[in-house]
Amino acid sequence: MSEEKPNPFKVVLKQLDIAAEKLNLDPGIHEILKQPKRALIVSVSIRMDNGNIRSFTGYRVQYHDARGPYKGGTRYHPDVTLDEVKALAALMTWKCAVVDIPYGGAKGGIACNPKEMSLVELERLTRRYTSMILDLIGPYRDIPASDVGTNPQIMAWITDTYSQFRGYSVPEIATGKPLIIGGSEGRADAPSRGVVLCTKEMVSKIGKRFKDMTVAVQGYGNVGASAAILLKKEGCKIIAVSDSRGGIYNPNGIDPIKVLKHKEKSGSVIGFEECKGITNEELLELECDILVPAALENQITKANADKIKAKIITEAANAPTTPEADEILSKKGIIVIPDILANAGGVLASYFEWLQNLHREHWSEEEFIKKLEYKMLEAFDDVYETSEKNEVDMRTAALMLGVGRVAEAIETLGLWP
Ligand code: NAD
Predict the structure, then answer these.
(1) Which of 107, 177, 263, 375 is catalytic?
(2) What's the pLDDT tens digit per position in 90-116?
(3) Domain residues of the chain, as ranges?
(4) Does this model's pTM top 0.70?
(5) How far is the CA of 296 from the centre of ligand 1 (A)?
(6) Does domain 190-341 fall into CATH 3.40.50.720?
């Protein structure tokens, strides 16, 4: 991988410029979309289990809300920065528009290492952070969700803290909650279900058979592990997976459920039976049909794009590919199904959970999956048609759709005062 680490917000701005040019976007609207509407930085101080006080920097960035209340996940990771959160908030804004749900885009995060913190420390951190962003969030204002390093329990603490301040139960304040407090059936697998659907659609568009396709998955967390399991169920052969410590490879196929059990026991995919150990760099460059980056940003850059051999890249992660890498991949004829389409199953699931909470309903898993598949396929078709019509790649098409819909909403609302 490259030594340079591209600034994630600059990457997103470059993508915005590409879409703006293709759309012939009004320069004033383009100007509006270059910055978030609001960004809050908080210093979250908590007492650690050893009695010491530590302060962690937290963020909540609200990018744009022309299409509806702000919506976006909350990331707990040591590398979280304001520019990363701004980038992810912008992507959420385009993504909600691509799948055509009535939300704007936001993102939150805390620079911390949740793996090194006790449950009690994480609870204190989450509750204090929630109290410090309280005036910005709300079920009709800005609805947090989970992301890298956060989970349903953390969403439960956000929900409880917000409800305590309001004085009554507000389950619709956060999504990705445990089932018992208003979480949705089917939520856990929703992002990966979308990843699989988009990949399958693309494989059929290029006239190939999905069954027996070889797959490499980078990142074996919530999304990556679930994607590997669902792809195997569809008949694909998982030949390599990885996590932050490294990867494993077996050209004859790997059982993703067994790998997950191994990871739960040992903390990593490394050391799994009958597999060769490989680095994350090697995984990205493997000979395979489908590559699924499901870890973090900036994994496919100008330094390694030329070495990628997959035929289709389905971006389960947000922003894994830089614009320079996109150009190289496009020249090589590699199809990229972009993040703002491929992983939109996550925000669709959040939208469905929010709707159920607002209406005090509980949908069956079957109903949830049916609605998810319908919206994902509709979005895939919209992006594919835009790509064919304008003779652009899938990312440019998705950006044209997402940015175009947000721009139209801003124009329609007008600029006050
Ligand atoms: P997670 O924390 O559950 O998993 C991340 C995985 O990536 C872990 O296995 C970690 O070890 C691995 N990892 C970290 N750095 C790595 C590296 N350099 N190389 C290889 N592996 C590495 O997070 P998640 O919720 O699965 O999210 C993964 C990606 O999917 C993120 O980009 C996130 O924004 C995106 N996403 C998540 C959701 C969701 O609902 N969870 C929805 C849409 C998109």
Answers:
(1) 107
(2) 999 999 999 999 999 999 999 999 999
(3) 35-169, 190-341
(4) yes
(5) 6
(6) yes
